[in-house]
Design brief:
alpha/beta, D-Maltodextrin-Binding Protein, domain 2, 2 domains, 6-stranded mixed sheet, 5-stranded mixed sheet, 13 strands, 14% strand
């Protein structure tokens, strides 16, 4: 690892991971009779104490699981990531043995499992009976399994559209490269995510496999992104930070956002809408709960996953985060204002449609001329400091 990349990773490890409050609500959910190994009770599994979470904003279920956590005397200790590989970085730099619950997106988990990198432990599915209710796309999905073992339970899914103020913009341009236009000066906010941003611009440049780039192609992507850089107000540490920037009016358009940001803004009296460049489109994601190798509080993690995978809990989490639900019966009770945002035909079919075919995260290690994830991280850092 070169010194430049080491400095970047050190800064990621030491950054302040406290973020912002979440939308209040989703109270009064049904409680859970926790199942461990067959015939085990919550008492026998000795639930209680810490549950160490590292994942995306809101997926710790602070509101949805409040009653469940209190009933079982579990203390959620949550920290939030801004990039898909942050959990791996922490795991390999002193975090092993202190991490319990992780929320990898499908492409990062796929890359980890394919490369046999140690991070996630195989799940005992008898301890997550609620997972039987998942949509077909999420049962034995190729990005969740390896050699017949399951390593993750999806809890939400969605896409990464642009989020913008409709009072400022009527629609999005045709391509991401169009954001270099001077009319966007002082209007853009990005997420601190090397993989999503580079993938979007590689797509806009027409690369056939935008997650598999040579060094020359990666350099071309960064050179193209730098033409847009003068228009960027700031780079948000989380989706919530991006939303706050737009709510304050410091920027009017977020690239690679989340529908959840429109709910954050609505809660604060600001209207934001979603849309994507008409030619380039966007990418779809699915996030899953995974348990880290050597997790110190695995019983708490199993019980939490089983709770969130109940229909009522899953619907509440999807509503709170403005995302798609992963449990079939949750769809029937999900608020239509959220349910109708996403194309559920994809998750009703085995393989997941676009979820199964679209890959955003690069390989963890280089493969011939194709560079690996560290090169993307380094390229993104160069973009940030330029």
């Amino acid at each position: 690892m070169n010194e430049f990349l080491k400095i970047f990773l050190d800064s990621k490890l030491n950054e302040d991971v406290s973020r912002r409050r979440f939308i209040q609500g989703a109270a009064g959910l049904a409680t859970l009779t926790v199942l461990g190994a067959p015939g085990a009770s919550a008492e026998e599994k000795k639930l209680g104490g810490p549950l160490n979470f590292l994942g995306w904003d809101g997926e710790h279920g602070g509101n949805v699981a409040k009653e469940f956590l209190a009933k079982n005397n579990i203390q959620m200790q949550a920290a939030f990531q801004s990039a898909a590989d942050e959990a791996l970085t922490r795991f390999n730099t002193g975090g092993r043995g202190s991490m319990d619950l992780l929320t990898p997106n499908k492409d990062f988990q796929r890359a980890i499992l394919a490369s046999n990198v140690e991070l996630f432990q195989p799940l005992d599915m008898s301890r997550i009976p609620s997972a039987q209710g998942l949509f077909p796309a999420f049962k034995d999905a190729p990005w969740l399994t390896r050699e017949g073992k399951t390593y993750g339970i999806p809890m939400i899914w969605g896409d990464e559209p642009c989020v913008y103020n409709p009072a400022k913009w009527d629609a999005m341009p045709e391509k991401y490269t169009d954001f270099a236009d001077p009319k966007y000066k002082g209007e853009l906010v990005l997420l601190d995510d090397p993989f999503g941003n580079i993938w979007l611009y590689a797509t806009s440049l027409g690369f056939k496999e935008p997650s598999r780039l040579t060094q020359a192609q990666l350099d071309q992507v960064v050179e193209t992104m730098l033409k847009m850089k003068p228009n960027v107000v700031t780079i948000g540490a989380s989706h919530g930070d991006m939303a706050d920037v737009m709510v304050r009016g410091d920027a009017s358009l977020g690239i690679g956002g989340w529908a959840y940001q429109t709910l954050i803004a609505k809660d604060k009296g600001v209207k934001l809408v979603v849309g994507s460049p008409s030619k380039d489109g966007t990418f779809f994601w699915s996030d899953a709960y995974a348990i880290a190798v050597d997790a110190p509080n695995a019983d708490n993690a199993y019980a939490f996953i089983d709770f969130i995978t109940q229909a009522e809990s899953n619907a509440a989490l999807a509503k709170e985060l403005g995302s798609g639900c992963t449990v079939e019966k949750a769809f029937d009770i999900l608020d239509p204002s959220v349910r109708d945002i996403y194309p559920y035909d994809n998750v009703r079919q085995p393989g997941g449609g676009i979820l199964g075919t679209q890959i955003v995260v690069p390989p963890q290690k280089g493969e011939g001329d194709i560079v690996g994830a560290p090169a993307w991280v380094e390229a993104w850092q160069k973009f940030k400091v330029a």
